[in-house]
Amino acid sequence: xxxxxxxxxxxxxxxxxxxxxxxxxxxxxxxxxxxxxxxxxxxxxxxxxxxxxxxxxxxxxxxxxxxxxxxxxxxxxxxxxxxxxxxxxxxxxxxxxxxxxxxxxxxxxxxxxxxxxxxxxxxxxxxxxxxxxxxxxxxxxxxxxxxxxxxxxxxxxxxxxxxxxxxxxxxxxxxxxxxxxxxxxxxxxxxxxxxxxxxxxxxxxxxxxxxxxxxxxxxxxxxxxxxxxxxxxxxxxxxxxxxxxxxxxxxxxxxxxxxxxxxxxxxxxxxxxxxxxxxxxxxxxxxxxxxxxxxxxxxxxxxxxxxxxxxxxxxxxxxxxxxxxxxxxxxxxxxxxxxxxxxxxxxxxxxxxxxxxxxxxxxxxxxxxxxxxxxxxxxxxxxxxxxxxxxxxxxxxxxxxxxxxxxxxxxxxxxxxxxxxxxxxxxxxxxxxxxxxxxxxxxxxxxxxxxxxxxxxxxxxxxxxxxxxxxxxxxxxxxxxxxxxxxxxxxxxxx
Length: 495
Prior knowledge:
The chain is mainly alpha-helical. It starts with 6 loop residues before the first helix and ends with a helix. Helix 3 (88-104) packs antiparallel against helix 11 (243-268) and helix 11 (243-268) runs parallel beside helix 14. Helices cover 73% and strands 3% of the residues. A hairpin with a 4-residue loop joins strand 1 and strand 2. The chain has helices at 7-23, 31-54, 88-104, 113-132, 136-145, 147-157, 162-190, 197-200, 207-224, 233-240, 243-268, 270-275, 277-296, 301-320, 325-356, 367-370, 372-385, 392-407, 409-434, 441-444, 451-469, 472-475, 479-491; strands at residues 64-72, 77-83.
């Protein structure tokens, strides 16, 4: 018996069905038709997600839009969906990003067009399933299945070393997931035969058991974030992935790991979370500082933004484990902002790569002379990546730093270095690529944005500015859920 009207099911299955339909429409001879079907499917996927925002009760910490039906009764496994103020924004972000990725790859992809579009649509549905699942087995199925489309996107449409990058990405993420499976089975028996995630939040566990579960979940989610030192797969994956793959990887897939900490780790093993918070803060600060320095020496634009993503996600996990409402909400805001900003930066790099077929900073210079519209968009997103006030990049970082000051001034001081490093590596890249005289013939022949590229970057620019100037509509839906989570963590008692 379903509770609700099935909006969450629509957000999952509309893009998946659309993707299957694209696959069923034949080969590349029908490429234009496949693009049109993919665009309709992505647009419908976004439209069916909008009622989650308009109908959401921001004053409630409870799961909303719940759906529940028996799936495998023998093991008490249910098709159980629901979202709260923590998960709901990511369903919308994912659906919106998928629409932009389909538009961005409209003319760029000429080989296996249908399969390319279908992979992103199916990936979108699976990711929404991750954010909406309230049954652990259902979560695990979506969590693992979402690797397959991205593996294919990197491995089929990627660069020269695409197979190596795809296999490395798959093995890293799969290994962590196997440890999580062991943790899920342990919790199943401890909860007397339940896979309901919300039930697990109330299961009393000894500290030793909590720490072992924390370690198992850590490896599953830290690889996805990715946290230092299990981050090495990400630069390879980004460099080899096609532009759309990099956008989805940065904007959405990395968020799954951070989301896992809030949905599983903090509420299920709260005492271990408090016990090991120092370790998590240390790893987060290493990512912020060390990876920021690594980004400074990159000569490949994609690799630079990939390392930038690791540093920004370090800010997110820092915000989560200081156990301050400002910090957790700041981390969530940073996740959403990073979805917009990193996605936009990868699209900007893709625009240049499509014209010059190089990602090397040294191959550019003076782009503003031939692509002024593009240079303006690129400037906005570069500033947002550096945390400029009035952009979305500033809001989350500022909230995390404020939360960190309440806990320990030196945490905040170390985290604040990312604003310096972020400005350094981002502006260094922007200056060398965009400013100065025209560097070579290829730059001299560049054409400015076409209408499709202008639309995609324009939509992201609106999101970056709107969230930077007026973040309250996003933060207010999180308050109740975040406060409820932190209250649970603070007042949990060992059995």
